[in-house]
């Protein structure tokens, strides 16, 4: 829904490559979430986060021959903070997958789309597309339905 208005197969701007990589990222993320769900039965959340960080670091190190740009102290500090927050988020995600079904958590992954959109708006002053404004209520409704799925809502009695 978000990409259909700008999808143009004849365009040479690289949009199609980006969309294909986005779909591939979603598929790989799904595989990772299901794997975390399975191994969370036997491993602690900290151990799973450590394995994930180790594999990610080795994959990042494999890109060294492609050329790395030198980092300033500020950029290195932000990168370290990003890693710390990402590690904490990974531990929270691992615990969530241990205690809840992946199908119930999936709609909340869509809510994660809000943060980059807000960063675009507040930091880079990029305008919000009409497609996003159309999809936003659907994403929030899906997350809300997932949160209340299986719960019985008790309405207060009128007197």
What's the gist of this structure?
The protein is mainly α and 159 residues long. The protein contains 6 helices and no strands.
Explain this structure.
There is one protein chain. This protein has 159 residues and is an all-alpha fold. The protein is built from 6 helices and no strands. It has helices at residues 15-39, 45-61, 73-99, 102-111, 114-122, 130-148. The relative contact order is 0.10.
Topology summary:
Elements: H1 15-39, H2 45-61, H3 73-99, H4 102-111, H5 114-122, H6 130-148
Helix pairs in contact: 2-3, 4-6
Question: What labels describe this entry?
Answer:
159 residues, mainly alpha, 2 domains, 67% helix
Low-pLDDT ranges: none
Percent of residues in helices comes to 55-70%
Broad structural category? mainly alpha
Number of domains: 2
Biggest sheet, in brief?
none
- The overall pLDDT, averaged over residues, is 79
**CA radius of gyration:** 20 Å
Number of strands: 0
Order of helices and strands: HHHHHH
Shape field: globular
